[in-house]
């Protein structure tokens, strides 16, 4: 397969997005982190006075916006929403707190999955998320599921958050990681699950470079 479509799923802070992005860059493939799309709808809701729990209004926001991949030379932008680049604002604590509620709305998922399939239909790429191998791209050429113990994932997130919030406690990050894992795994629509034909990569004992190498090799083996 000369133009592989690769699905990468995994829980909060498993590294799927940073590893997927680095592997895609090495191989010259397009990359989409679908979590950013759920974050963008959440951000739009917060900025237009729509409550994240108002499912009808949130679904209308999702249906009314058009998301596209940001140009790879625009490193500040994670995604283009109606032509406007959005980046670091999507990683705020406000968005973190509300994104699980927004991503549990069926009509939001239907709309974003439609846009994700549209983006994938134009050729080879790596797409990362929670339901890519199981729902969005069931015919992907390769499905990877990246995982690590919650304590290890919380440890990595804690180290990252410390850079911007020096007072953050590890226990709080662990609790938040477990809370979001629970919401993602227990929701009725498209819960986080490894697809039956996914290759599982456990990264507890791997560093970032080792994980990127493992993902690059796996993609090369199908490309
Ligand atoms: O990956 P990230 O943590 O940025 O994703 C934000 C949220 O979006 C997740 O907690 C999850 O609830 C949701 N999400 C999803 N399906 C995807 C990607 C993300 O439900 N494919």
UniProtKB/TrEMBL annotation:
Cross-referenced InterPro entries: Cytidylate_kin, Cytidylate_kinase_dom, P-loop_NTPase
A GO MF label: ligase activity
Enzyme Commission identifier(s): 2.7.4.25
Keyword Amino-acid biosynthesis (UniProt): no
Enzyme class, first EC level, given as a word: transferase
Family (UniProt): Belongs to the cytidylate kinase family. Type 1 subfamily.
Record protein name field: (d)CMP kinase
SUPFAM superfamilies: P-loop containing nucleoside triphosphate hydrolases
Source organism (scientific name): Geodia barretti (Barrett's horny sponge)
Lineage: Eukaryota, Metazoa, Porifera, Demospongiae, Heteroscleromorpha
